[in-house]
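hi support,

uploading two proteins for the ticket. first:
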Amino acid sequence: MATATTEPVRLPPALRLPKMVQAVLFLTALQYRVAPRLSRHYGGPFTINLPVFGKTVVIHDRDLVKDVFSTSFDLIERPTKVLGQAFGPGSTFSLLGKEHSERRKLVLPNFQGRRLKNYEQIVEDEVLRETAKWPEGKEFETLSTMTNLTLNAIMRATFGERADALDELRVVIPPLITLGSLMQRMPPIVRGEYGRWSPGSRLAGYRRRFDAVIDELIAEARADIDALPERGDMLALLLQVRYEDGQPISDRHIADELLTLVAAGHETTASQLAWAVERLRRHPRLLSRLTEEVDAGGSELRQATIYEVQRLRSTIAASLRTTKTKVRLGEWVLPADTNVMVDFQLAHESDVNYTDPETFNPDRFIGTTPPSFRWLPFGGGINRCVGAAFANMEMDITLRTLLREFRFAPTDAPDEGRNFRGVAIAPSKGALAVVYRRPQAKQSDRDSVAVADHSS
């Protein structure tokens, strides 16, 4: 792991271009072409200088990644100035050190075991609802469907089933998430409220509407306190949990946490599902094998496919950490307040980490789990995504249902490019598909629960 040091600063080689040019290269979709070239050019880590973020060391080597994710938060911590500010001071993304660890202990169990199992039917219901009007034999974008079904599923799992509240949140949450994420990449002066139509004022208005709904739902839940133990939604669960000293999470922090859960678990999973469609249509033999497996009630290849889609088409580009003091990281010495960017694409496409890394091959994960510190779609360490198990379950149930209900026509069209949407990276053409409803799909198939075990 990284260690504190008094050695002279020694940074990896730096990209010598104006800061704004570097911003264009690394804060847009261009980074997916630029980062691999720079990594090859420098032969390993390199340093960039970005607006808002400042000096940033880009790494992907397994040992360095392990050191960063394993180092004490006394030396290296996750910066809060981006997502933390977008979601509020009570978000897990805003909390540091002991406060973060304590909150994580309260939130993580709600995405594991029996509670996770309870959300499976919600996901399948939403898949069937959103695909009911899919056209047959006509090319269309699937990303919008994936976005709707993941939003509806995570909202029902998070807020409960009150229809009017969900209707308002469906209107408010998407622009709140997208605008909030984009605003945090801007200089502070741009984020201010400068009149009704300024981005800052619009964002504040969306947040007030969100908080109003959450306040009403919290008050309603507390008015029927005896019913809380019977509910399975995240709002009810967060109202019941207590820290070790017996104190509850404050209402404002609950609102921030709920927004975080929806934002982190909605657009990223939707984009990942869209990438699955984009990849599978270009691999017809794999598509046939997956369909045969679904019909047989299996799940091993489907799970391996999920892992491989996440490897080659991660919806999050990187994970950031910031040094709190001067530290030695491998052969490098980083001063305090230096950002460290763990680049997921570089790690996932490294020929040191994977054999034939640029080939889409789910069979590499058959009978095994992805390797630590080399497979990084959910980040790592104490800041690893708390909703990783939920996202995996949601992808598994969605793909199982889609393959059971539809036949996807293969395509020889060029791969879709990467499009950054403010929160996640999605297929540039929206994951185009042509489908035909499978006549053999029966109600008995729909009632099947032969899926991967999500309870562990």
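and the second one:
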Amino acid sequence: MKKMLTWVGLLLIAGVLSACGTEKAAEKNEELTVVASFYPMYDFTKNIVGEEGTVELLVPAGTDSHDFEPSARDINKIQEADAFVYNDENMEMWVSDVADSLKQENVTMIKATKDLLLLPASDEHEHDHGEEGHHHELDPHVWLAPSLAMKEVEAIRDQLSEVYPEHAAIFSKNAQSYLEKLAALDQQYTEALSQAKQKSFVTQHAAFSYLALEYGLNQVPISGVSAEEEPSPARLAELKHFVETNGIEYIYFEQNAKSTVADTLADEANIKTAILNPLEGLTEKQMKAGEDYLSIMENNLKELRKTTDTENPNEKNLTPEKEKSVYNGYFKDEEVQKRPLSDWAGQWQSVYPYLQDGTFDQVMSYKAKKDPSKTVEEYKQYYETGYQTDVQEIEIKGSTITFVFEDGTEKSAEYQATGYEILKYSAGNRGVRFLFEAKEDTGAFKYIQFSDHGIHPAKSGHFHLYYGNHSQAELLKEMGHWPTYYPKKLSGKTIAQEMLAH
């Protein structure tokens, strides 16, 4: 509540500042003015806009963009601009608080991640902001992979061009020139890291998940280590054991570690420190020296190669193992409980059309990068077989299930629970199917089975449905075909984003 009142106050002050200034319409009749939230957005936008307008940086040089909260003057600065470019609400978490006021001032909001799906955030990504701490639900650090930075540049270019068509040709030309430089940077990363002698790197700030995924690396974040403060004797002992067990030579910080910290880590734990710059805010010195996204990312690659160009016989210890959770199919028989049909009550839609129309293409791409045992096309074919169905929608109300087919016909029946079956899979994990049977013959499926990674009563967020008319035993043999349903109210992109979270 206190934070909400603070924002209301800031917006009121910003409104007064705006009223005290020159009429915005008069200011806009000359050149285009764009405000960009933090450094990568500023550099990307500046390379697109060029001489067609002025691009201003909102977050001051040297300021951690995670900790930034705009003042009334900052909000007024955005309100006076033609357009505001930002990365994503999971980075600039204050954007949703000012969106309405910017809309009222006719400020065009440009979201760089507009067409991208985001990875789930790690537990390490928590930042305190005043009395109310918050965390990123999704990982916003897309720009740290050059291949994805290119997609952000394209998104900014396209959105600016749509709103300002009179500048579109120049935007396109400028962007193309910059994209060629980013493509060359991407090629440098690809060539260097595809030959990595070890793929795991240890970082104090878990900002490099996209970089790791795009270039086949494994980011290993560790907590309790700061570039500013010496670790406690207990933490030093833990770090010493960690590096000796796992063959670690470098720990990457986001800034230069103080000499005392570096010396302590070197002397007591035999750890070298290096820098991976997350580009969340350049210093004034860096900006005056002409450093930019390209130069810093080139240096990041140079620093990464201190690790990736060196073999590590203990690297296998750092390979992440699949969590043995209930969701992933690890549980005890006695933990399983019967479930009522109400667990799946609601209106549901098949995800099959989204696989067909390309909405899930990014999901398939992420899967192929995370587990290269299949190509993107092979993953698509796997899910084509799994998702295929002519049951487009399902409504579950009380004991009645209504199936809506792709030709528009509907079939309904009342169902009763007949228990559950625990299945063992070839991978070593298990699953539970909850069985239901139609009370009478109405033309709807006689037998159905729900599977949603749950093992006891709880409201389902999505489910796989097995259905047929022969027998429950026959359905239990089905392993390759599992039509999947999500709430009808969700968009295809929202469902795709949910899939990445699992």
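thanks. also noticed: The chain has three domains: 2-171, 194-318, 333-500.
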